[in-house]
Structure formats: structure tokens, C-alpha cells
Protein 1
Amino acid sequence: MRQNVSLKPYNTFGIDAHAAYFAEFSSVAELRAVLEQAIPPVLILGEGSNILFTRDWPGTVLRNRISGIEIVRRFTRRLWVRAGGGEQWHALVMWAVQHGLGGIENLSLIPGTVGAAPVQNIGAYGIELKDVFISLEALELETGRVRRFDRQECHFGYRDSIFKQQERGRWCILSVTLSLSTDKHRINTAYGDVARILAEMGVARPAPADVSEAVVRIRRSKLPDPLLLGNCGSFFKNPQISLSEWENLRRHYPDTPHYVLSNGLVKIPAAWLIEQCGWKGRRVGNVGCYEKQALVLVNYGGATGQEIYALAQAIADSVRKKFGISLEPEVNVL
Ligand code: EPU
């Protein structure tokens, strides 16, 4: 256990907050051992790619380094893969496509760990983690007991799960088991530019590896690399409004992009709302709204978490004023 440790290398916003105590663990036994000495409150950290520190952490930060990827069951056209919570998510995607497995190729290049993926039910280009999720194993921080959560028990929603709601902060996710296809893959190229990029690549019948490559190209062209420019991907969720709110909005702004959802709600791209308020590409001191994707807030270097949070609030205020829509952070603000 180290004391007064800078978290700057451990969060992709690159915020120089400090943890009073800090340790890493690579196994359940190590986790149990560090928990015995840990001063509360305890925070489990993966790669810190969806977290904004607005203050120092007064207790103990524990970084999950549990690794390993293994095939645990085989079926005719699918198999179950279990990955350690500390594995990099993208490394798991690369492992899958290199083995010819399908199901998570649309989730290529998402920063973060495997253990963090279920917490916000990561999603991109028409696929969410829940679509391939079988179960996870988690350790209860208070008692040290390990239990399994299946898909229903995780209460997955849009960028949401039980681990962001009533079970928030209570569990460390040790491993995640996914079901991947070995054959007859369900290739999904319906979202945005995926089909166009595949056509540009000259691929007519894409394999999972081709879709992965197309998604990597799209993400590289739109989203900043956290190693070069601090960020946490989308800062806000895309808001969902009722049909009557939508009717009212379209009367004033008929060109608003929108997607009618199966639950009767209408999803509006937050990036569009933010761009209409004039924020896209705008810099305020050390922080800014990314020039190529308005939903991404960036740290140009040396920003505090408070500065980023103040920018987020200013953006949310102007969207509320102009459109009457409240933006909710997707990133965990601590
Ligand atoms: N748009 C703008 N201005 C912009 C960017 C986008 O007006 O600067 C509008 C366009 O109408 C565009 C629409 O927003 O068609 C959607 O944009 P995009 O495809 O880039 O996706 P997004 O809704 O902004 C979501 C996820 C991303 C994910 C992409 C692709 C959320 C909060 N974000 O972004 O996830 O990669 O779709 O599936 O749902 C993340 O969660 O950190 C993340 C990056």
C-alpha cells in the first residue's frame, strides 16, 4: 500500500488528483489482502477511462490488474470466453477477432478494462455488451464473498447497470464471461459510417476482423487518443425524451436528428445539441469541447477536474436553456 499517490497516470482525463492510499492487485487473494488493510472509502479503478476526479480521494484506490482470457465452454457455433477484470477491453476484442470469433468487433478500441465494461454496459456502432454477456463474478468489498451475476441480475440499460445504481461502489468485478460466435456471425454494419468504410476497404462480405478494422478507423478519425489528449469519450449520455416533448421540440427545430426507440421514447444526439449551442471546438483555458466530436470534453494539459466539471455544467446549462433538455453525465464524476 502506497500513500499520497498521484492518480494522473491512472485516469484518461489526466487529472492530477491524489489518493490517500493506493495499491494494485492481480488476484482475488491479493485483493482480499489489500482490503484487510484498506482505509475507507475504497474505490476500485480499472483504466480510469470513464471517471472524472474533481477532488482527491480520501481513502484507498485499488487498481484491478486481474488478467487472463480463457475458453470455458464450447457449443456447436458459439463458445464462452471468460476474461479477467483487469484485462484491457480492446485486447480482448483483438484476441476474439484474431481467433475468428464474432460478437464484440463493433466494440473495438473502447478504452477501459473488461471489469469496467459491464458497469456502464459499454456500447458502440449498434452493439452493447449486454448482447453477448453471459455472467460476471464479483467480490463484495464489505464482506469479501464472491458471487455470480447473470444478465438479468445486472439490470443492463443504456450506459447503465445495477453497478451504477443500487449496487454502486459495493463490488469489484473479477471476471466477465461472454458468448461469442465461431461461425455464421451476426455481422452488424447498420450504424453510421461502418458500411461505407467497409466499402472503401473493398470488403463485400465482412468477417468480424473487417468490422473491427472499420470501427477502429472511424474511432481514430473522430475520437481523440487519450494518450495524446486527455478525455473520457462521451461525457454525457444521449438524452431520451417523450413523444410529446419531441413534438414540441421539432416545432421549433425541425432539423433535429432523432431516433424513435422501441420503448416509445425519442433519442436525441447530445453532440448535436451541444454543437447547436456553439460549443464544438471551443476552448476555455485548459479544457475544451473536442473539435471533431462535440460530446467529448478534453484536457489540453494541466486541467483540474473542477475545470472540466465547470465546462460540463456550462454546456449542460446552455443546452437546457436553448432546448429545455437536461444532459446527464455518462462519466462517473467523483
Ligand atoms: N453529431 C453532431 N455533432 C458532432 C458529432 C455528432 O451533431 O460533433 C450528431 C450527428 O447527427 C451524428 C449523431 O450526433 O449522426 C451521432 O454521432 P456519433 O455517431 O458520433 O455517436 P454519439 O451518439 O455522439 C455514441 C456513443 C459513443 C459511441 C458512438 C458510436 C453515447 C453517449 N455515446 O456517440 O460512445 O462510440 O455512439 O456508436 O451513447 C462513449 O460512450 O464514451 C462513446 C464514445
Protein 2
Amino acid sequence: MIQALRGMKDIMPPESERFVYILDTAAKIARRYGYDYMETPLLEETALFKRSVGESSDIVGKEMYQFIDKGGHDVCLRPEGTAGIVRAFIQNRLDRKGGVHRFYYHGPMFRYERPQKGRLREFHQFGCESFGEGSVYEDFTIILMIKDIFDALGIGYSIKINSLGCPECMPGYRETLVTHLNDIRDGLCEDCQRRIETNPIRVLDCKNTHCQELLEHSPVIVENLCETCDSDFVRLTRMLDSHAVEYELDPKLVRGLDYYTRTAFEFVSSEIGAQSAIAGGGRYNRLVEFLGGKPTPAVGFALGIERIMELVKLPEKGREGIYLGVMEPEALDTVLKIAHKKRKSETVFVEYARRSLKAHLKAADRLGAKLCAVIGEDELKAGQIWVKDLETKEERRIAFDQFD
Ligand code: HAM
């Protein structure tokens, strides 16, 4: 039998209810913060991700579902959402319009990683991207919005934040870091040794414990920020403090995508194992320009729906909807008419086959319906429908035209 590919998962009911609940909750809150929905293609030119996520990142270096299409174009399934949104923002000339533009999106992302608990090759993100607002108030507001989403979903988390500097302070810091890393080079793992050349700050978040011990006294970015980056970061932490938002300063939080400048953050859960990041994001002030648009500051985040599904409990749901059944085949036409009318406002389950009353009641109960309504021989003659409320157990007969 043909199976789903490794690292790809069907999301079946009843789990799919949690999936929809997370999306609905996040979208409702994003709209309250002024975000509009944007949909972009799953397939993009490979060059888009090489330029934005970065050639030295694991995502571009090892994890892309990349192929040549029938027209000879080098394309790939999107490994993340930001790059496509930025491309669409520029292609639709919104960078020329000026002002602030905020978008939310969701959908599947593809990364050819080694599958494990919480790490899939096809997974789903919900994300938000805000363009045109350069002030750190927007970073703060985005963090608050993610907090609102997780609080509404009733899940626990902790927040890590860092600043990754800007083109003014980053090159100097990079040099200091490389000098230090070269001193400890021999003890570092192969990946870290390679990264000293390609992307030295990624060495900081190496998961190897031996590397982490060696890195304990490495220079950190937050102590090497320029005046503007530093004052923005201080302002951000003060705002979080004054809103009683708890967070941890993590100088080694560097994120796995190369486009970030200044604020970077992650929301993590201690309840889902090693793959603990449930959301991540930050500011990327240079990406629009880098992809050919007018310089536009931007900040955003994405959350991982499958990881959050592990944590969410659905609110208790009572019985809902109407089950309609027949004990005489001639009554089916009437039942279908009632069903069509009722479906304008309610959930309706229809059983087409003739069944005993007991069988109908059992089926209605299994489906979680509130009402079980059945037409038998007597009811058909009298122009009535027999209705039982499965919550209150109350039974009655109602004329067809009054059953609404
Ligand atoms: P990211 O940190 O790579 O950021 O992914 C965001 C979230 O997607 C993660 O925190 C995690 O919950 C989920 N995720 C990532 N990889 C997997 C996987 N293999 N399996 C399951 N879940 C996964 C981004 O993608 C950026 N585009 C976020 C962003 C938006 N930054 C600015 N704007």
C-alpha cells in the first residue's frame, strides 16, 4: 500500500479540530491587530530562498525540496513563509506606496530535515509580517500579539529575546567573534568549524554540549551593539517589563535564518521535548531592499501548528446539531427538505437509509447531535416529525412546517 512520505502527516479528525481551532484563534487575534490575509504560492524560484534565508543556513544548504520544473526553472517548495510574502509585497508594488502594511498567512512549509518528534518535513505555520513600521513599538506589539494567541489557546510558554544588531554594529562584532572562535577552533565540532567561515554567529547556538562549554566565554552581540540598536533593545525590554511580560535575555539566540537584524525572539515550550520552539521571529529591515524593493523596515513571526497541537486542549463542546432519519423510505424527501432548510443555520446529519428508532438514536448519540428527529409511518401520515432532545431527554412531535 502507498504510504504518506516520511516526515509528512495526515491530520485526521478529531485532531484536525485542534488544527482548525489554532488557526481560527490566531487569525482572529491577528485581525484585531490590523493584519489582513495574504496567500502566496507554495512553489517559488529557488533563488528567492537562497537570497533571503541565506546560502549558509541549514535550510538552504541541506533542507530544500528543490527541483528543475518542466520549463527548466530551478524551483523549490517553500521552506518558510516570509520570503514569499516579501516577494509578493515588492511584486505588487506595495513598497512604492509607503505607509504600513500588515499581513497574516498560513499553510504548509517543507524542509527535508531528519524527522523526529515535533520535526516534520511538511509542517504548517501561521505567520504575520508587518512592513513599513521601523519603531521598536512594532516589535513589542508583535510579541504581545503572540502572547495573546498562546494565552487564548491556554498553553504555557517562555519567551527568549535577543538583538542581532544592524549593518553598523554587526561587522565589528563578527570580527571580534571570529577572532575568539579561531582561538578555540580545534575543540569545536565540524559544523562549527565550517560555520566560522560561512556564518560565525550560528556557531553560538550549536546544540553540541562540548561546543557550548567552549563557547561559554564568547563575546555576545548585546554587549557589542551600536547606540541605536542598544537603545531600541533597552526600550523593548522596558516595555515588556512594564506590561508584566516575562522573558529571558538569551545572548546566544541567533535564529536559523540569515535575514534578521536587531530584535530576534522565540517562544518555547518545556512540554514537547527537544523541538521546543513553538514560534519564532524578529526584525528584518534589509530584506525588502535586498530582494529588489524600496528599503522598508519589517518585522514578523511564525508559529508551528503541529507543535502547538501537542499542547492545546479544545474547549468543552456540548451536543450540537440535528440528526435526521427515516423509518419509512417515502419520508426521505421531506427529511432532505428539512435538512436543507436547517443547514442555513445549523449542523445537520442525515441518515438516508431506513432504520429502527433505536438505531437512529444510537447514531445521533455517536455523532454528538443535540436533537434526534425521525419520521416514521405515523408521523408521515400526520405531517409531523418526532424529535428527542438528547440533552434534556424531552420528546415531542412537531408539524413539518413548524420544525424550524
Ligand atoms: P522558524 O523559526 O524557522 O521561523 O519557524 C517558525 C516555527 O515553525 C518554529 O518555531 C516551529 O514551531 C515551526 N517549525 C519549524 N520547523 C519545523 C519542522 N521541521 N517541523 C515542525 N515545525 C517546525 C521562520 O520560519 C520564519 N519565517 C519566521 C519569521 C516570520 N520571521 C520573521 N517573520
Protein 3
Amino acid sequence: MIDFDAISRDRLPALLRAMPKAELHIHIEGSLQPELIFALAQRNGVALPYASVQALRAAYAFTDLQSFLDIYYAGASVLLHEEDFFDMAMAYFRRAAADHVVHAELFFDPQTHTERGVGIGTVIAGLTRASRAAQAEFGISALLILCFLRHLSEDAALATLDAALPYREHFVGVGLDSSELGHPPEKFARVFARSRELGLHLVAHAGEEGPPAYIWSALDVLQVQRIDHGVRCVEDAALVARLAAQRVPLTVCPLSNVKLCVYPTLAAHPLPAMLDAGLCATINSDDPAYFGGYLNQNFIATFEALPQLTARHAHRLASNSFEASFAGADVKRRWTEALDKVFASG
Ligand code: HPA
Ligand code: ZN
């Protein structure tokens, strides 16, 4: 038994850092640091609309999701070759290992690359090779989730799924990202039905900027197993009750929510209420190069801003991240035992 009440608040930052955890909501293209963007631009002869690393970083003042996405897609334009995708993912895994991430499920956006003439096989080959290297070098298990861009058509998503099928063994699921408002989940009903028939796991961004109705349709029409973000569920008591009863995981990204002005400050974030309502909420970094922090920074800043969060919540968040992952039961049990050990000696 872990004596959570005996753990003082000043021990929390060290525990948050040291505890093993899974990251389930990371857009790998959102891990591209400005320095790597410029290095890859030079390596590939790509012209950027920013004069320097500093000028690019200075543009990271977002007012909403779309203002971020415009810069995020510009940054991704330097990715051309398998090696670029490998280098990008390895830089993320190195940071994740330092944060005691033991398992990561990486979103990738094939359409961002195929529309520039980069083959989907090139993207998947680079990310797959990096995932294998992450296991060998850092002991991190990694899985890939292919995301459809929701501002494009469902037919484009279906064509992307078809193009990815020769690489089916290299990704475990599909997701839905990009501009949420005006692009409800039900727009992608057929491609998610097809993905389900193929035995793929299903997730979708919903309730970040979009209303609770988008979370309902992600569950009922797309039949997703996890909701990415989902924070706007707190506006709908019946929805919270359903998510809690069915233990539908929500991959919450606190620093992202503040940077994209979903909440004015971390102190205003509903995460404590979500946890206390019994939701299977997790903490994630979303696009760490753009939003001011990797996973541990998200944990530490969130706990600092919200004094009602305790050691019990910290343990719950890490254990939720394992429960919510698409990893096997055996490794989940091992990670949970390692988590308990950190808290027992805390
Ligand atoms: N929301 C939607 N689409 C995205 C995001 C996000 O936070 N990051 C990268 N693509
Ligand atoms: Zn996201």
C-alpha cells in the first residue's frame, strides 16, 4: 500500500519527474525544434519564410488552433527524406527518455507530406526505424497512429488509408487532427468504419475547440476508443458521466491548451475536476516544440499551478496513461509495478 497522505507537496516535482509514464498524444511533427527545422532546411535546400531560429520562435504567439497549425505546417515543410523523419523522431525519443517516458504513441500526418510529393512509405520507414532504435537505445516502446487531416475531404482520408495499407503492420491505429471547428467527426464516418474493419485502433481529437457534441459523435459515430483533448466535456454532465462510466480515456494537453487560448492560464484548467469526476484523464505534450514543454514540463507546470493536485493525482495520471495505452497487458502490469515502487519509496 502506498501512503499518499505521507508524501509532502515539496516532494511532488521530483516524483513527477521520476515516475514512469506513457505519452499518448504527441504529434511527431510538433516535436520539430526550430534549430532542427533550420538544419533540415539547409540539408534539403528548402527555403523558409523565417530569417532565423529566433525569428521563427518569435512567431510562436498563437491566438487559436488555426494560428498554430499555419506555422506547424510551414515547419513540417523541411521533411523530405526517410532520414529526416528518423532524425526528428530520435530527437523526440531522447527527450522522452529523459522524462522517464516508457511508452509513446506517436501521431503522424501523412497528408502533410504526401501533398508535397513525399511518399507515405518514406514517412513510415523513417518513423518505424526510429521506433525500433528507441526500444534498443532508450528502452522506450513506441507505436504509430496515422492521423487524417480533418480540414481535407473524407475521400482524401480514404485514399490515404489505401496508400498506407502496404505498411499496415507498422501502425496500430488511426486518428483525426487539424482544424476542428467546422469539421465534425461524422464527416469521417466511412473512413473510421473501414479502419475498424481493418482491426485498427481508433482515436480522434474532439472537444479541444469544438463543442461537446463533437465528443458525442466521435464516440457514437466514429466509435473511437480514446478522445484526444476532450476538455470541453466538462460543459456536459451527461457526457462526463458516460466517459467516466465507460473509462474512455482523454488525452489532455495542459500547456497546449494555454498556448492555444483554450484556457487563459493553467490555474483555470479543469484537469482536477476531470480527475475527481472519475475520468481516465492523462497528461500529454501535444506539440512540445511549439507549446513550451515536453511531458515532464507539462506535469510540473500543471501541478505547480493547481495546488489541489496531490501525489494521489500524480499516481493516478501515470497509471491512467498505462491503462489508456494500446500496449499489451504484460508490459502494462510491469510499468504499473515500477510506478508503485517509485511512490512507495517517495
Ligand atoms: N489539434 C489539432 N490538430 C493538431 C494539433 C492539435 O492540438 N497538433 C497538431 N495537429
Ligand atoms: Zn493534438
